[in-house]
Specification:
8 strands; alpha/beta; eight-stranded mixed β-sheet; Rossmann fold
Length: 233
Amino acid sequence: MDKHEWVELQVEDGTRMRAWTAMPAAGWRRGLLLFQEAFGVNPHIRDVAMRFSRQGYSVIAPELYHRTAPGFEAGYDNFAACQEHFQALTPEGMAADISAAHAWLAARHGLNTHLAAVGFCLGGRVAFLANTLLPLRAAVSFYGGGMQPLLGRVASLAGPMLFFWGERDTHIPPEQRRPVADAMLKAKKPFTMTEFSEAGHGFFCDARPSFHAASARQAWALTQSFLDECFNA
């Protein structure tokens, strides 16, 4: 049986951060940094961690709100409860959290060059940031919002990016998605951008009303093949 548990990490800014970890029973092959939606490291994110661990990944999902609300989780119908903590996040704080999660993987598994990142919503942005800070083989961003302030870092991307968007996503309209592709093209960085015509924001999460099963299945399959390709390159 796969092992899963909460661990506590020391962050370089002096704070302490919980993280959910999932490790395969049959032995890890790769390390994965998994980044939460705005609603916390909730049952859905923990379930995604377990799904990846069953694919041979040693997974860590850090609590990005640990400075303002340790242990925070909110229902998908209560984004208002997330706003204070969401808005308190800074690139510097997220970079420190990424570093702490990476250090945990490296200390326990010796992982450094066999690493990837996957994130959802808020976490999609953090996965992109992680790819500019760590020697990742790849990163996957599911409907990552607020990407524009990070596009100045695109030249520092270590591995290819896979972006997923929903055409019916009113939170991230085409005029916000296009600059991401333009920045990647200008920097000549490898990427894949997939847009699902019937999907809205949060389409991958089966706990949300916006869940779109067909798009979620296709996105999961594409994620697996993309990561396999990048790790085997």
